[in-house]
Amino acid sequence: MEWWKPWELLRPFFSQAGYELYNAVFGGEMSRPRTGDPPALDSFGLHGDRTCFSSFFPPVYPNVFAARDRQNRDVVIKLISKGEEGQSEKDILLFLNSEPLRSEPANATVRVIEWLDFQDYCFAVFPFCDGCDELPFLGASECLDFIEQVLEVSTAKLTSIAQDVSHENILVNHRGSLPPIAFFPPDGPPRAISPLSEWRSTFPVRYLFIDFGRSVRFDRNIPLSECTAQPSPEGRLHRAPETLGPKPYNPFAADVYQAARLFYAWFPDLADGNPDLLKLLQDMSCHDPSRRISVALALARLRILRPNILNDRCERTLHSFPSIPEDSHTLPSTYLSMGTSL
Predict the structure, then answer these.
(1) Other CB atoms within 10 A of residue 341 CB
(2) Which Gene3D superfamilies match (predicted)?
């Protein structure tokens, strides 16, 4: 069955709830709003020019679909659970969207607008945000801001949740037109625009986490160093090595590893050109999780070295997750004593 057909069966249900599902077009290669009108200018406080914006939604996952609400705002509807299946993600979202945590500024997650129940299916409605990787990062300051914000999320009061760090799980507080990256001459193939126009510098960028299907929540009273998760055959390409083994592992240490691999995959030139930054990523990605520094120490060290990194221009899109070069010297004992106390 085509991926959008189950959603079509539920179109009357969502319409009654105030959400008009997009239409699948081009054989399901994407979906578009039923009308050609741009989304509302006031859309959940998101930045972006929507005056002449044409919305579309690619089929990222079959359990996610786009829609318009009664105020003509773009939203995304996700199937969270069916019966007991998916209950863990539902519990995490309920926790993140309960007060006072929902209003906590450090809660850098996409808020749930509404919960919708159909039989034993539970759906969550979210604002439609652009992805963090819509355009390449243009300079060292944009790269470092991304790194710092991702680390900040993990050191905030949300530390009871191991978050499965990956760029697919990170959006940005923007919805609207993007600067073009290519132009299309009538007599030839597309040509890349260089240099690219500024985007992240045109609004106060905030990176937001989504998708807690692989996340684990722990009681806040349990020390992070004592939290364990069971290995799973499923996982990211840049997952920590201990997640593949037969023994329980610390998911917070695994998050540190995944974050380092993500940062190096996106910003290898920046890391290779700045020894202190490369050393930081090496210390975050030690093969032995007991020697891996904590996310709190990683953030502290980043903030110390960041002012000394020149804002050189760089343009890169993530295509793979290369291994981080191994450190050539022993980890200092001061880092060991500070970093292993997760």
Answers:
(1) 13
(2) Transferase(Phosphotransferase) domain 1
**What span, in angstroms and rounded, lies between the C-alpha atoms of 140 and 142?**
5
Give phi and psi for 177, each to the nearest 5: -65, 145
Parallel, antiparallel or unpaired: strands 161-162 and 170-172: unpaired
Q: How far apart are CA 138 and CA 312, in angstroms?
A: 9
Compute the distance between CA of residue 320 and CA of residue 122 in angstroms, rounded to an integer.
34
Q: What is the pLDDT of residues 122-174, one digit of tens each?
A: 999 999 999 999 998 998 999 999 999 999 987 765 557 877 888 999 999 99
Rg (CA), the chain: 21
Tens digit of each residue's pLDDT (9 = 90 or more) over 109-119: 999 999 999 99
Please state which CATH number belongs to domain 17-127. Answer: 3.30.200.20
Angstrom CA distances, 120 to 65, 80, 82, 83, stand at 18, 11, 6, 5
> Are the C-beta atoms of 137 and 315 separated by less than 8 Å?
yes
8 Å CB contact between 102 and 96? yes
Domain range annotation of the chain:
17-127, 140-311
Architecture of the structural domain at 140-311: Orthogonal Bundle (1.10)
Pairing mode, strands 207-209 and 30-32: unpaired
